[in-house]
Every structure is written in C-alpha cells, then in structure tokens.
Amino acid sequence: MISVLFAVLTALSNGTASVLQRRAALKVPDSEAMHLSLIGHLLRQKVWLAGIGLVIVAAVCQAVALATGPIAVVQPIFVIELPATLLVAGFVMRVGVPGPVWFGVAAVTVGLALGMASAAPVGGSDDVQGAAWIPALVATGIFEAVLIGTALGTSGNARAALLGLAAACGYALTAALMKDAMSRLDSDGAMGLLTAWQLYATAAAGVGALFLLQNALQAGSLVAVQPMLTLGDALISITYGVTLFGEVLRTGWWLLPQLIGVALIATGCVVLARSPLATASPEPSPRVR
After folding, report:
1. Long-range contacts of range 31-39, CB-CB < 8 Å, 24 or more positions apart?
2. Using CA atoms, how far apart are residues 286 and 104, in angstroms rounded to an integer?
3. Per-residue model confidence (pLDDT) at position 123
4. Nearest by Cα to 75 from 235, 199, 229
5. What is the residue-level pLDDT of the chain in tens, covering all 289 positions?
6. Cα–Cα distance for residue pair 216/138, rounded to 1 Å
7. Do 164 and 148 contact (CB within 8 A), yes or no?
8. Distance CA 140, CA 144 (A)
9. CA distances (Å), 51 to each of 43, 47, 170, 180, in order?
10. Distances (CA, A) of 105 to 96, 110, 171
11. pLDDT tens, 215-272?
12. What residues contact 280, with CB distance under 8 A and at least 6 apart?
C-alpha cells in the first residue's frame, strides 16, 4: 500500500509538472530545438522552475515507491499521469472539464485496476544480479538511438511523439537504476548507496530523459507527447521488472483480463487525446483580484 500511495503521488506530481513545463516550452523559439540553450531559455521562466520543483517531489516519491514495491507494480500506476495532466490543464486554463474527459479518466482508471489485479506482479529481487545490466544497457542505447535519429528526420507532432517515447524509455531506465541503487542503501547503508554506480547512472539517465522531454514538449502538442510518455514508461518498466529483477506476471487465462485492461487504457487515452484540453494551448487568463 505504501508503494501504491507514493506511486500515485508521483503520477500526480509529474502530471502537474508536464502542464507547467509545456507552458514554458511554448515560449522557446524553434531554433533552440535539440540545443543546450533550450534549457537556458527555460531556466529564466518561473513556471518552468515550478515544474522542475514538482519533478523533484515526484522523484522522491518514486524512490520511496520503488524501495517498497516491485517495479512492475509501481511504474504502471503512472498511466494515471495522462488524465491527471488533462485535469490540471483544465484548471490552469480556467475551462470546464467536458464529459468525454471524465469518461477517459474512468476508462484509464478501470483499465489500470483490471490490468494490475489480473497481472498481479509478484516475486523478484530488489537488486539486479550479475552482469545483467550490460545487455540491458546496450539494448536500451540502441533503442534510444533509433528513436532520436528518426525524430531528427521529422518535425511537429511526429517528432514530439518519438522524443516522448525516447523520454519514456529514459524514465523507465531511471526507475530501474533507482530501484537497484536503493537496494544498496538497504544492504550496505549510506556508504553503499554513495559508492554504487547505479546512483550516478540514475542521475545521468534522469537528466537525459528530462532533456528529451523538454524537446518533445517544444516540438509538438501535449497530446502527442503525453500518451507516448505515460504508456511507454509503464510498458518498458514492466519489461525491466521481468528481465532484470525477475518479477513474475500471471499468464494463461489471466492474459484475457490483462488485454481488456490494456484496451480500456488505450481507449481512455484516445478519448483524452481528442479532448480540447489536450489540443489547446492558450495562455491562461489572469485571475480576478
């Protein structure tokens, strides 16, 4: 229950951060795409700094969630980040939340509950055994290179979606590294954590994922980025959980409700993606004092 609670808090913090970062990214010139100067522009915007503050809160909550539960349980809960993002966007833009958005929220929530209950991830170790990280990092590097290379040859929402998926892969890798690093804290104390390469790899992967996300948000609409980011993070994290940590999912006839859950989540995401809250990006009107 602790891991689920902190996973939910992580999703809510990240969803709010996405809205704030998107508002800031809209003000960055297209010429700054894929350049470090992009970050310089964003650093001068208070709304972006507020978003980064929430990213830090989310990181702390995620560390607690991963330290107390399997990665295949914690990361999929982040699919609620998409509906949370749209609900927060409605509040920020001072517009009412239409009925289809509530339907999408319900579909994603029910789909997540059904999928997690039927998959019932169990077992697994808290750390990665042997040299299993080597093939995982090589495969991840190749996957990221293909996504980024393809994105650079496109523009608009296509680039945003590809970079969003690349960011999702980066965040999933960050979660796997973070879980492995936290196991060193349990077994060897603070010194074990500080001397673990996974801790510093977590920071590097997180910074890389953040950079990719900012470029994704700058390249296209939130609707192109958020579904790829949210669903990609969940599915890739499950892959890491099974292959690296030995977590086990139910199979056999349990696959049927799992697929139904995935279908509900996909349906909810499509409905949410078509919402004016996802496609609109106006500046919010000033509050009445």
Report:
1. 32/218, 33/215, 33/218, 33/219, 34/152, 34/215, 38/214, 38/215, 38/218, 39/211, 39/214
2. 29
3. 65
4. 235
5. 788 888 888 888 887 887 777 666 666 655 555 555 666 666 667 777 888 888 889 888 888 888 888 888 888 887 887 787 777 777 766 666 677 888 888 888 898 889 888 888 776 777 887 788 999 999 999 999 999 999 999 988 889 989 999 999 999 999 899 888 888 877 778 888 888 888 999 999 989 998 898 888 888 877 778 778 877 888 898 889 888 988 888 888 888 998 898 888 878 877 887 777 665 544 433 333 3
6. 23
7. no
8. 6
9. 11, 6, 18, 27
10. 15, 9, 23
11. 888 888 777 787 788 778 888 988 898 889 888 888 888 889 988 988 888 788 778 8
12. 93
Closest CA to 65 of 79, 84, 50, 78: 78
Angle subtended at Cα 21 by Cα 109 and Cα 152, rounded to the nearest 5 degrees: 95
CB contact at 8 A, 109 and 82: no
DSSP letter at 124 equals -
Q: Coil, strand, or helix at residue 11?
A: helix
CB atoms inside a 10 Å sphere around CB 187? 11
* Rounded-to-integer distance, Cα 184 and Cα 117, Å: 30
As to burial, measured by CB atoms within 10 angstroms (0-12 exposed, 13-18 middle, 19+ buried), residue 4 is middle
Q: Tell me which residue has tokens 């093939």.
A: 135
Structure tokens at 95: 């517009």
- Whether residue 218 contacts residue 25, with contact meaning beta carbons closer than 8 Å, is answered with yes
Q: Which two tokens stand for residue 13?
A: 């913090």
